Amino acid sequence: MQAIEALFPAHNYTLLAFIVLLPLLGAAVNGIFGKRLGKEAVSLLALSVMFVAFALSVVTFLALGHAQEGEEAARFIWKGWEWFRLTRSDGTSITLDVAFSVDALNGTMALVVTGVGFLIHLYSVSYMAEDAGYHRFLTYLNLFIFSMLVLILGDSLPVLFVGWEGVGLCSYLLIGFWFEDDKNAAAGKKAFVTNRIGDFGLLVAMGLLLYYTGGLDWSSIDNGAKNLLTPVQVWPLGTHVPAASLVGGAFEHWINLPRYVSAATLVGLALFLGCAGKSAQLPLYVWLPDAMAGPTPVSALIHAATMVTAGVYLLCRLSFVMVLSPAAMATVAVTGALTAMFAASIAFAQHDIKKVLAYSTVSQLGYMFLGVGVGAFSAGFFHVITHAFFKACMFLGAGSVIHAMHARIHDTDASQDMRNMGGMRKYMPYTFWTFTAAWAAIVGLPFTSGFFSKDEILLRAYTSFVKAPAAKLSDGGGGSMEVFSWPPWLGAALYAIGILTALMTAFYMTRLYLGTFFGEFKGWKIVKNWKEPEHAHGHDDHGHGHAHHEPGVPLEGPTPHESPWQMWVPLAVLGFLAAFAGWLNAPLFHIETMHHWLEPVFAKASRSVELIEGAEHLEYAFLAAAIAAFAGGSGIAYWIYVLQKGKPAQSFVEALPGFHALVYDKWRVDELYEEYVIGAVDSLAEFFAWADKWIVDFLLARVSAFLVGASGSALRFIQTGRVQTYAAVMVLGLGGVGWYFVTPRVEAKVDANDESGVYSVTASQGLGYSYRWDLNNDGKWDDQERFGSKTQQSLNLDVKENRTVRLEVKNAFGRTAVRSFNFARPVPDRSGATSRFDADPAPGRRTGEVRALPKPQEMK
Amino acid sequence: MTVGNVFFAVASLVALFGAFMTIASRSPIRSAVGLLITIVGIAALFLMLNAQFLAAIQLIVYAGAVVVLFVFVIMLLGPDAGDGEGTVARARVARYGAGAFFLLLSAAAGHLVSRSGLTPNRFKIAPVTHGSVESIGTFLFGSAVIPFELTTALLIVAVVGAIAVARGKPHVRRQSKSASPTARMFHGPLMARDAQRPLPTKAERAAKAAGGM
Amino acid sequence: MSSLGYFIEHYVVLAGALFTLGSIGFLVRRNVLVQLMSIELMLNAVNLMLVAFNRQHMADQNGQVFAFFIIAVAAAEVAVGLAIVLAFYRLKSSVQSDEADQLRH
């Protein structure tokens, strides 16, 4: 240990670079040379890279454990290089570095990511062995692990965002791995686009954090976090709503009242939007069930264990920011609870085994956010870990079952349909026992990992709440707002939803478990004269390019059998962890290892989290409720599907066919989005297409060209080529010129001097011009109405006197023209104001003004 | 009523009559004769204005050369010189309208001038040297020698140019088959539509003239 | 009537009338030869004007010399113009100015 500490000091922990870059190396080599290296070499490289990364994570974890004693959180940092520098207008600058850091929170998570990742790599070696894109698959897996490690080990939000986008990319690549089928490609696209909507939230959050706290790495945000407690005027944009003046009166007054939200709430909501996209919460969960189009190891790794938990990790990492806004935390908790229940309801009616597991993932993620939202960060994070174990185990187990089914049925959809399964425990014992362990964990069988983690979340949902950081926030400019305070009934409501969802989870998971492993195998159809297809069809040939089989035609193939060791060994490891990892944090038995381990990381946040009175006494009551939920849910499922052979479910479907169809169609949320969101975008696109066709192409291009052509055709008639025509036109021009010379024009220069009162008019000369003036406003021409040659006149005006001067001009041909000039001498301005501009208004009282940027804090 | 008045009246009437005949005659030879009459009238007026040298020059150059040229060309053209019946009168409205407009303009100008109220001054007695050959000659070879020399050059250029333009090419007119305007520019006709309209041969023209008469 | 011919105004009016006749002839007639003759008319009218003004302001001989040059140039112009008419006739076998519309659109 001392050797490690000597080699890798805490402020320059180079092992982090190795942990992150090794999977990248594997991805690069496999990606570029994979085809040439061959399957064994590719597998060896991918697996060894993962194993070494895992080993180094273990070393780091132990080093962290050694370094963390007491209240202070241990933290190892490795600084790579300066990424970019933002310079403010006043010369100060903010630097963003590529740096990685590890503390208790992401050290644990790195263990999970690399460990579970390694197991899934091992599993894929066997599962994808017959696939033509084998090296591509392992490349993408390694690339994914690299991105995930960048995400969790990043020392700042931009580095995290790089990883965030990287895992989104790999998710897209892996979901659409079998991209020749349009359905898979579309699912990949859907995942990416939905994620993108969430990423917008994360970018907004980054911008806000940069503005208010003056930095984007964890320490800078921590130092500047208190700047977030300022109200931001979100309504009206600007100073008032102009349209409201049409209505007027009290409504106008009400709608123009400024409404404030604290900056911390904005940041929290924006961050949560990012998490909703990445971690599949309402309303952005729609990509996760479709993501089951990818190979099963992908579902296990990305959509169960690691990527979808990135959102929870982000909220845990920025826990000290989130707790500054009880409103945002309440939103997180409520959304998590609702997602959990909503997804569980959909899972009731699904037949595809992977879809049930997908909705179960969404539901469990809802639990995690519920835990994080009420302030139980370590409880939520613990559920992340246990969920990784049991959900990955379930997915891999499902993959094993599908593997066996596919060998028999050769049809992707049918081999995943639970109605074709049954009685698998006879054929696949290892899979069966490991799946049992995972099932026990998720339904909450006492003393399994899921039991402990879910129970703690449910308890904390009821008892824990986030305290407001201050009663009122003011911005120093006159705006102030009340801070949202945690409603007293919220805990009870969340708990009610949570316990109901636990009941539902137990029900549908037991339904899945019983349907797959118990009863009689329904995919069993023996047909005489079954012929071997042309290509060599070994029992582990599960190429996916097979076409769908015609319904009604009996299927034939080998008996379902257990999978090779590369597949069931990871299952065994995960199953073991699913069963027994709960003992890491069992508050019931006063074991709080995980909690103590994570405590220093959440110390700052925990100061804002409080328990209601009498929380200590509720523990046993809630324990009983949790066990009741488990027993009730599993019992009902057992009764319906085993004892009654599924008849109550059948009659329910027959009695309420519409309702069942609605639930089976996932409450038609996808259709709703298609109709309104995508429909809106489509309408906009159609409008632009119409505008392009009719405005740009027609009006601007064709009509203008037509106008030019038409005017050209019209003008062409003048060009007859005949001299006589041109001469005739010249005569017309001659007429015009002659007219110009013959008419007199009155032009005069006026010189007005307001101060002295002298105004002079100077008439311009012309050929044979003579002038006649009328200076004294009497309407008659002066000088006995004679025309003279005096061209300049000047007059003196008194103050406030008004006079009109008229001038008549006659040219040599005797034609005349008249013009009049108006003069008024204004009152001289003696008020003494030296400038036209008002003095600046009184400072402070301004609404809608952008706050000055707070000075950046000293960084330690 | 002195001789001068009568002379002026007669000369101006003659000039006007000649001008009218020039522009209004159907036959070009009559127009040429009208021009000749006008020139003679103008020459008489020059005499009235003490421009005896100029009157002589007018008669020699204009009446003796220009009108003769016109007559030669009319003779060369033969019957085609006049407005034959084969031609279509185009744009009659525009032409007559332009002519009327010009008439209107000049009437307006005349009217304006008459209103100008300038007091008329009778001609003063002219010195003997005014308009004499010597004075004009002195001026020509003195202050105006440069324009004089340039006019000489102009005359030479005009002679050469007239010969060059009038001589033309031998009357071989082949139908140009080439479509490109550049090629046609060299061997004519310029416009493609003229290639389709071959010029009438001598026999055809004679037939047309004979038929037209 | 004893003043006829001794005032500049009479010559101005006469020259104006001749010029107008010449212009009308040019604008109205289609025959190229007649148009050329009309141009000669106009030139003559201008000559008359020049000489008449020189008779009124007899400081030097500018007007008459100017008219002299006009006559010379007019002669040259007629020579070349008639050559062009002949070339045109060769092309179109007609002397109607309507036929000379090669520069038409």
Secondary-structure map:
The complex is a heterotrimer of chains A (860), B (213) and C (105).
Chain A: H1 2-7, H2 15-37, H3 39-67, E1 76-87, E2 93-102, H4 104-127, H5 134-153, H6 157-175, H7 182-213, H8 218-224, E3 231-235, H9 249-255, E4 259-262, H10 263-278, H11 287-290, H12 296-305, H13 310-317, H14 319-322, H15 326-347, H16 353-373, H17 377-409, H18 412-416, H19 424-427, H20 429-443, H21 449-463, E5 464-466, E6 472-474, E7 480-482, H22 490-517, H23 565-580, E8 585-586, E9 591-592, H24 593-598, H25 603-606, E10 609-611, H26 619-643, H27 647-655, H28 657-664, H29 669-716, H30 723-742, E11 748-753, E12 758-763, E13 770-774, E14 792-796, E15 802-810, E16 816-824
Chain B: H1 3-24, H2 28-48, H3 52-77, H4 92-114, H5 133-141, H6 145-167, H7 181-187, H8 192-196, H9 202-212
Chain C: H1 8-28, H2 32-56, H3 62-92
Helix pairs in contact in C: 1-2, 2-3
Structure at a glance:
Chain A is mainly alpha-helical and 860 residues long. Helices cover 57% and strands 10% of the residues of chain A.
Task: Write up this protein.
The complex is a heterotrimer of chains A (860), B (213) and C (105). Chain A is 57% helix and 10% strand. Chain A is built from 30 helices and 16 strands. In chain A, strand 11 and strand 12 form a beta hairpin. The two termini of chain A are 27 Å apart. With 213 residues, chain B is mainly α. Chain B folds into three domains: 1-80, Up-down Bundle (Four Helix Bundle (Hemerythrin (Met), subunit A)); 128-169; 178-213, no CATH class. Chain B is 69% helix and 0% strand. Chain B has helices at residues 3-24, 28-48, 52-77, 92-114, 133-141, 145-167, 181-187, 192-196, 202-212. In chain B, helix 1 packs antiparallel against helix 2 (28-48) and helix 2 (28-48) runs antiparallel to helix 3. Chain C has 105 residues and is mainly α. Chain C has one domain: Helix Hairpins. Chain C has helices at residues 8-28, 32-56, 62-92. In chain C, helix 1 packs antiparallel against helix 2. Chain C is elongated and about 55 Å long. Chain C starts with 7 loop residues before the first helix and ends in a 13-residue tail after the last helix. Chain A binds chain B through residues 720, 722, 724-725, 727-728, 731-732, 734-735, 738, 742, 768, 812-814, and chain B through 91, 94-95, 97-98, 101-102, 105, 108-109, 112-113, 115-117.
